[in-house]
């Protein structure tokens, strides 16, 4: 119980520190909101997406991009945020100092995961509110879709968090963390149906994207927010929610194993 209590206190501290860092707020918290606004405004003149041959029907650009931006926000909150943050803490000696205190490793990770959950929920809530009230995006009214949203979010954020912890070992220094992690996250966003319509990508690139979790998070969110007829342009002609669950569960397990094997308070070569 003391370990959990320390972890909760650590989560409060981590969240306060998070919102005091201007670059972190922009590149992880506000970035999906900024991109949704840019894409919605820039492509509004092209009309609705998925219109009928007579020009009727379809959904707005904002509605079309919302699921991808939510998925990207989950990835940024988990992978980019934790990978960079932990690498910086390792580089500036914070992890070494924490290793010399009574703080349990479990409490440290409860703090990190708590911060990720709190900030990502706030980010997604703000993103949905802006999409609905600023761009008129209609939100699902079916309880089943919101249930899908919950489990896709939970699997997605947990997977992103553990992968972020594992990837924090890649940068050699804290100063190089951003330069190493951001390109990885950015490439995944372009090939996973966040900025580009997934069905418009070459089949081989779709297959490559299917090896990574962001594609499945975006697909799961499209199942929540897009009309059912949009499933026909997905791989296999459906949103394939069982496949989404299996893929994210596999990545969650792989991430847990990788994080367990790679995390140290300090580098062995330090």
Description:
This protein has 270 residues and is mainly alpha-helical. It has one domain (2-44, 59-262). Helices cover 70% and strands 0% of the residues. It has ten helices and no strands. It has helices at 2-18, 22-42, 61-91, 94-99, 105-135, 143-167, 177-191, 203-209, 213-225, 241-262. Helix 3 (61-91) runs parallel beside helix 6. The longest helix has 31 residues, at 61-91.
Written as H for each helix and E for each strand, in order along the chain, the element string is HHHHHHHHHH
Rg (C-alpha, Å): 19 Å
The rounded distance between the terminal residues' Cα atoms is 33 Å
Q: What about the largest sheet?
A: none
Cα shape: elongated
Mean pLDDT: 91
Please work out how many helical segments DSSP would assign. Answer: 10
Report the portion of residues in β strands.
under 5%
Structural class: mainly alpha
Number of strands: 0
Helix content: 55-70%
Query: Oligomeric status of the shown chains?
Result: single chain
* Sequence stretches where pLDDT stays below 50 over 5 or more residues: none
What is the total number of structural domains?
1
């Amino acid at each position: 119980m003391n370990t959990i209590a320390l972890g909760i206190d650590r989560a409060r501290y981590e969240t306060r520190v998070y919102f005091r860092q201007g670059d972190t707020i922009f590149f992880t918290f506000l970035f999906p909101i900024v991109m949704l606004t840019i894409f919605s405004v820039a492509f509004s003149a092209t009309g609705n997406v998925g219109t009928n041959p007579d020009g009727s029907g379809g959904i707005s650009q904002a509605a079309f991009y919302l699921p991808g931006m939510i998925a990207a926000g989950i990835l940024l909150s988990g992978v980019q945020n934790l990978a960079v943050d932990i690498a910086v803490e390792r580089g500036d000696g914070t992890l070494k100092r924490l290793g010399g205190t009574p703080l349990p490793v479990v409490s440290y990770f409860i703090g990190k995961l708590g911060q990720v959950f709190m900030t990502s929920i706030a980010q997604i809530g703000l993103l949905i509110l802006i999409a609905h009230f600023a761009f008129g995006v209609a939100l699902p009214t079916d309880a089943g879709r919101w249930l899908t949203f919950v489990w896709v979010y939970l699997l997605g954020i947990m997977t992103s968090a553990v992968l972020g912890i594992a990837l924090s070992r890649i940068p050699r220094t804290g100063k190089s963390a951003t330069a190493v992690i951001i390109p990885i996250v950015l490439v995944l966003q372009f090939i996973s149906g966040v900025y580009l319509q997934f069905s418009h990508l070459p089949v081989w690139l779709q297959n490559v994207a299917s090896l990574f979790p962001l594609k499945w998070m975006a697909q799961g969110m499209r199942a929540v927010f897009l009309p059912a007829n949009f499933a026909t342009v997905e791989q296999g002609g459906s949103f394939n929610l069982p496949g989404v669950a299996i893929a994210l569960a596999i990545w969650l397990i792989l991430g847990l194993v990788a994080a367990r094997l790679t995390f140290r308070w300090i580098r062995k070569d330090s």
